[in-house]
Write a structure and sequence with these properties.
mainly alpha; 3-stranded antiparallel beta sheet; 4 helices; 3 strands
């Protein structure tokens, strides 16, 4: 295997470690059905020996589209990610912010486990950002 292929395989493996370690948290944070479908598709691909690499990329793009600046690979950057012990697969806390960027209202994601908080003016869901 070439160096590029080795790095690509390792990155996919590390993303899978992060995914399986945080699958329920990811599912809870993802608001769009297309994103939740990407979670289900990746689970099915792993179970059925499908094209995992393509589905890791798909889910990564969906997570980014929903406002997470690091995506699926966010917990695997740097020297800390180790497949055996899951070290380094931690995630910084998230914070919900004003969806319109007009005020300083915020909620810590850990404090709102059921659903994203909403804007008191128009009912729009606050946007989730990773710190």
């Amino acid at each position: 295997m070439s160096d590029f292929a080795d790095r690509k395989a390792r990155r996919t493996s590390e993303a899978l470690v992060y995914f399986f370690t945080h699958a329920e948290d990811l599912r809870r944070r993802l608001r769009e059905q297309e994103s939740r479908d990407a979670v289900d598709a990746l689970l099915a691909a792993v179970r059925d020996d499908g094209d995992v690499e393509a589905l890791v990329r798909r889910l990564h793009r969906r997570i980014l589209a929903e406002g997470d600046a690091k995506g699926l690979h966010g917990g695997t950057r740097g020297p800390g990610a180790q497949l055996a012990g899951f070290a380094g697969a931690g995630r910084e806390p998230g914070i919900y912010l004003c969806p319109h960027g007009r005020c300083l209202r915020h909620h810590w994601a850990d404090d709102t486990p059921d659903a994203p908080p909403t804007c008191e003016l128009d009912g729009t869901e606050l946007r989730l950002k990773s710190l």
